[in-house]
Design goal:
alpha/beta, Ubiquitin-like (UB roll), 4 domains, five-stranded mixed beta sheet, 10 helices, 21 strands, elongated, binds zinc ion
């Protein structure tokens, strides 16, 4: 029963009473009833809870509660709207849209407004809101292009950053629209080879490795052939004696990072840590300073190139790759692949670490004998015919 129905019933009851009794008795009775009614109303008002209408249903709420308190306490279905992204309209802040609007007796109410008994509240759910957008000018990073087929990396053009104007969602950061103001030009890294002289350079990556590096050093000693070992800092720390032996026997140690990581996309801090970490470890353990750098997996980009140069290193890839690290690579196939591909100025990629290199070790004397027979001399990277100097 709602409160207006209740008051109608009591009026009807009182009218019937007055008609069936004398006026005096009636007035007296009415006075008693009125007093009792007032008392009941006050008692309810002071000690109990009072009825209000919320969206057509009756709720008992605390006396003097504010609109905000009533919404918080009652299981009311009206919810605020959500904040949506400017791109795909997904919800980015639940409840971050328009808030629930409250009307008390048909008039929009403030949240701190007190509600009186019998008031009628109407709750209007909040609608979803789309986040505002903002315009920004951003730099387009310099892309990297690698050209040529030689081993030594040089920079042919530094490239330049571009500029783009983007419209982004102010809350989500989503790109709503973008426009290129100035296109970026790529950094061009050129792989160069000094041809001419019949020389090749042997390189061994991913060591030093127990037993295997020693076996390779034994073969190189017997054959009187120098090589460059691109070592990993972590391995140098574990195998300092092998690292020292590489240097002591006239070979070169190159930098192949501290943890053998992919440098593309690495932060400047990571690049510095990986490059310096390996060079420092080699210096501490052997007294030698790496001059050449080989990026793990051959992966390099503009920022990595700059970090390598800033660290005083020369980046080098390879021109002959028999893929001796592949599972099932067999000594005969490794040797034949190298012998067939070798040209004046070739840089040959082999591995002394990173796994079982028994087939590489078996192939090595064969490679050396065959290339010697063809008139090749083995040199360190420093002694390759000088690569054209880049302007950067
Ligand atoms: Zn490697």
């Amino acid at each position: 029963m709602d409160s207006s129905a209740k008051s109608r019933d009591s009026h009807t009851a009182m009218a019937t009473y007055i008609h069936s009794h004398t006026a005096r008795t009636a007035l007296k009775a009415a006075g008693i009833l009125a007093a009792f009614g007032l008392f009941a109303f006050l008692a309810q008002g002071v000690f109990g809870r009072v009825p209000v209408q919320i969206d057509g249903r009756e709720y008992l709420v605390g006396v003097g509660d504010s609109v905000a308190e009533i919404i918080a306490e009652q299981p009311i279905a009206a919810h605020p709207g959500d904040l949506l992204s400017a791109t795909d309209r997904r919800v980015i802040v639940a409840g971050g849209g328009e808030q629930v609007e409250v009307r008390v007796n048909g008039t929009e109410a403030r949240l701190d407004e007190r509600v009186r008994p019998g008031d009628t509240l109407e709750l209007i759910p909040g609608v979803d809101k789309v986040e505002p957008t903002a315009e920004e000018t951003r730099a387009i990073p310099v892309p990297t292009t690698i050209v040529g087929k030689g081993a030594v990396l040089t920079m042919a053009a530094p490239g330049s950053a571009g500029i783009e104007r983007v419209v982004v969602g102010a809350v989500s950061g989503d790109v709503v629209a973008s426009e290129t103001v100035l296109p970026a030009t790529p950094m061009v890294l050129r792989r160069v080879n000094g041809g001419g002289k019949k020389v090749v350079a042997l390189t061994f990556d991913d060591g030093p490795w127990p037993t295997q590096t020693a076996k390779i050093l034994d073969i190189l000693k017997t054959e009187r052939v120098p090589a460059t070992f691109f070592t990993v800092g972590l391995r140098v720390k574990r195998e300092p004696k092998l690292a020292k032996r590489i240097v002591d026997e006239g070979h070169a140690i190159g930098n192949h990072t501290y943890h053998h990581i992919d440098l593309t996309g690495a932060t400047p801090e990571v690049l510095k840590r990986e490059l310096d970490g390996e060079s420092d470890m080699v210096r501490w353990m052997t007294g030698a300073t790496p001059k050449w750098f080989r990026p793990p997996m051959g992966k390099i980009d503009g920022p990595a190139y700059k970090a390598i140069k800033a660290a005083g290193l020369r980046p080098v890839l390879w021109t002959v790759d028999p893929q001796d690290w592949r599972k099932g690579a067999e000594a005969g196939a490794i040797a034949k692949s190298v012998i067939a591909a070798a040209k004046p100025g070739s840089v040959i990629l082999l591995h002394d670490g990173g796994g079982d290199r028994a087939q590489t070790i078996k192939a090595l004397p064969w490679i050396i004998h065959e290339l010697k027979k063809k008139g090749y001399e083995f040199v360190l990277l420093d002694d390759l015919p000088s690569a054209p100097k880049s302007s950067w």
